[in-house]
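Query structure, 727 tokens:
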């Protein structure tokens, strides 16, 4: 230990290779069991601060229990990320002048698999850099054969129970990707917009009723004007018709509570095919539903001929020009507009035929389990969010218009009769029973929503539906560590699927982490230029390389210069090298039970100093001969440090069990620096009683290992040379 500073670059790869070589992350038989399934990162992804926080927490929990005589399993894996992966491979093929339609579905899917096999393991290797001690021999992928089989089985079973069905409903539609997307993939952005006030003439009258809208192009699909039944201004007009401008169709004025007398003019146009609220109004009032868009956001044949084929925003301009004096006012406003997070295009509510799961029925057991505290949330307040979503649950759109993913196991007969089966041969048998002869069947081209397959993650990765040792030992899992943004999209759906198919909860506890923000409390985003790569914190990065990373994709957005100025000011010399243990301990210290977490570089520097303190304390102790293996309290100082160690050990156990890792990290820091180094070691120097320094250091290394695995393992090897702390 000649170096005066701990040099993490000489240690981390060596130590991790040793752990893997010795297979120290595999379960070791014991009576007590502890298991975690990793929230599967997208196969297209790379490590970000949210991943780093989430996975270091999981690693601490798994190491802590592994070292406290539990048989532990941390089940790893990645998600096939249907939309993101398909978009990425399409873009790659386009750069080679290859169109996916020209090569067909089978060859395109083959290309995706080729990409996955070459690049899909990037984030796994990055997780290893964080010290993540998953059992990598069990690494799973949502498109693996065994997982795909479980997905098909679940679909068929739910369909046969009447819990999956096909229906024409309004969905979030991405006009660029030409697929339905989930709410999580919709980014609600506040933008500068305009509210247009338009007069609709009352039939057989020279009077008008004024509506206000931000989307005048959708008026081509209006089927009513709604006013509030308590709004005295419009009572006499309810039941009358108005003449819809541009189309000259007659539509009725209806009374509905949805119309807000305080908003706009108090009268609102109703377009059931292109607005979720309007769709509900349309169902209540049995209105006609007219879709006026094509799947790529152009005007279809349901509009006047001069509009057919126009892009939706071109149609808006044309309508505004042609309204003439019927357009009475334009008002500048700020409002939220939905954008697709992958395509960066405005999302349209779009009426289309999709597959749905009856989430309302599936949610009944899942709500009861949390209410009865068989599954508990930490912090407790997140259970309110869970119930808020579950109590207002809507049918779950589970189909996507993609080629990459689990293709829906449904075939159609000549009369569009649906046959759901494991494969074509089974579907043909069902069809022959129906038609009494062989008929041609056509398979449904859609794939399942990625969240459908990840909803089975907790039990399918352990081998379900086959009964095996892992499923028996490690299911239900002990805890799920996840972000609050997917409590509904993933946590709730795992609860529903697990209870439906195993009859058991998927996890006993749900630890919900906050969102990592920058030092100023702002959400980290590419456009703000405040994203920090956790691997840059570990290894450091030069200023010029940092600038390239932050601005390379922003030139067209006009943000590059602004971000460069901010980066030069914040990191004049680039990002320093801190090492994995310092990064991990910083995350633990910030793992408060709050919604937002501000990442502080100053705290990170403090934990780098703490690593050096550990290193130098070990160097000092190594100068003395190792006289004994066990701690034996002989002096008052010995008795004091033994009591302090026992107290801090109990407190850390309590904090870990309550998921207060910030408190636990503080206990470790205060004990080691303030009590062991500044007090006990100094007392030993004065008294000359140094025999207990080695045994106490050993106990401390074991205590600290889940927090700082690399430096503790290195110190243990150099001083004690008795095998891994994980043994």
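Result returned for the query:
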């Amino acid at each position: 230990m000649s170096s005066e500073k701990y040099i993490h670059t000489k240690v981390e790869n060596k130590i991790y290779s040793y752990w893997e070589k010795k297979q120290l992350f595999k379960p070791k038989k014991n009576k007590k069991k502890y298991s975690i399934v990793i929230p599967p990162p997208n196969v297209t992804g790379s490590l970000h601060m949210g991943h780093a926080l989430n996975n270091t927490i999981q690693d601490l929990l798994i190491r802590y229990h592994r070292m406290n005589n539990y048989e532990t399993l941390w089940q790893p894996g990645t998600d096939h990320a249907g939309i993101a992966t398909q978009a990425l491979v399409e873009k790659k093929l386009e750069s080679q002048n290859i169109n996916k339609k020209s090569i067909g579905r089978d060859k395109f899917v083959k290309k995706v698999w080729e990409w996955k096999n070459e690049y899909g393991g990037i984030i796994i290797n990055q997780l290893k850099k964080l010290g993540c001690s998953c059992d990598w021999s069990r690494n799973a992928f949502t498109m693996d054969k065994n997982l795909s089989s479980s997905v098909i089985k679940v679909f068929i079973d739910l369909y046969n129970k009447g819990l999956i069905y096909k229906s024409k409903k309004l969905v979030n539609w991405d006009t660029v990707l030409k697929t339905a997307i989930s709410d999580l993939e919709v980014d609600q952005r506040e933008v500068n917009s305009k509210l247009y006030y338009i007069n609709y003439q009352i039939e057989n009258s020279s009077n008008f009723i004024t509506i206000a809208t931000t989307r005048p192009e959708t008026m081509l699909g209006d089927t009513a004007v709604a006013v509030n039944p308590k709004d005295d201004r419009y009572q006499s007009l309810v039941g009358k018709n108005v003449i819809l401008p541009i189309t000259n169709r007659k539509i009725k004025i209806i009374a509905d509570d949805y119309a807000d007398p305080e908003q706009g003019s108090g009268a609102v146009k109703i377009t059931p095919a292109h607005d979720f609220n309007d769709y509900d109004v349309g169902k209540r009032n049995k209105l006609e539903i007219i879709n006026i868009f094509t799947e790529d956001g152009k005007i279809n044949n349901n509009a006047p001929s001069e509009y057919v084929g126009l892009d939706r925003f071109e149609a808006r301009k044309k309508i505004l020009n042609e309204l003439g004096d019927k357009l009475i006012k334009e008002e500048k406003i700020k409002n939220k507009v939905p954008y697709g997070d992958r395509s960066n295009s405005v999302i349209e509510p779009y009426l289309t035929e999709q597959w749905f799961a009856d989430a309302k029925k599936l949610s009944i057991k899942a709500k009861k389990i949390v209410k009865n505290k068989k599954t508990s949330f930490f912090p407790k307040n997140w259970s309110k969010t869970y119930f808020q979503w579950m109590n207002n649950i809507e049918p779950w759109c589970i189909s996507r218009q993609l080629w990459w993913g689990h293709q829906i196991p449904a075939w159609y007969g000549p009369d569009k009769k649906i046959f759901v089966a494991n494969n074509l041969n089974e579907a043909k048998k069902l069809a022959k029973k129906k038609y009494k002869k062989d008929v041609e069947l056509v398979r449904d081209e859609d794939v399942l929503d990625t969240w459908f397959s990840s909803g089975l993650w907790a039990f399918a990765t352990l081998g379900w539906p086959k009964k095996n040792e892992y499923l028996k030992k490690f299911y239900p899992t002990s805890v799920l560590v996840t972000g609050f943004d997917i409590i509904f999209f993933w946590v709730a759906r795992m609860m529903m699927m697990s209870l439906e198919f195993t009859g058991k909860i998927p996890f006993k506890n749900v630890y919900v982490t906050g969102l990592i923000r920058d030092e100023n409390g702002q959400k980290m985003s590419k456009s703000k230029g405040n994203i920090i790569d956790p691997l840059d914190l570990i290894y450091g990065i030069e200023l010029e390389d940092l600038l390239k990373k932050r601005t390379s994709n922003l030139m067209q957005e006009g943000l590059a210069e602004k971000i460069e100025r901010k980066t030069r000011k914040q990191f004049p010399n680039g990002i320093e090298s801190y090492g994995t243990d310092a990064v991990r301990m910083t995350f633990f210290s910030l793992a408060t039970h709050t919604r937002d977490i501000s990442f502080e570089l100053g705290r990170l520097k403090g934990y780098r100093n703490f690593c050096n303190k550990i290193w130098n304390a070990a160097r000092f102790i190594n100068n003395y001969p190792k006289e004994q293996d066990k701690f034996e309290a002989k002096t008052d100082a010995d008795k004091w440090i033994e009591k302090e160690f026992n107290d801090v050990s109990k407190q850390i156990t309590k904090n870990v069990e309550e998921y207060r890792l910030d408190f636990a990290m503080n206990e470790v820091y205060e004990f080691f620096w303030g009590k062991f180094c500044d007090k006990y070691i100094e007392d030993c120097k004065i008294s000359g009683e140094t025999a207990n320094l080695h045994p106490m250091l050993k106990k401390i290394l074991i205590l600290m290992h889940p927090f700082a695995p690399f430096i503790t393992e290195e110190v243990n090897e150099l001083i004690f040379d008795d095998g891994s702390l994980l043994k």
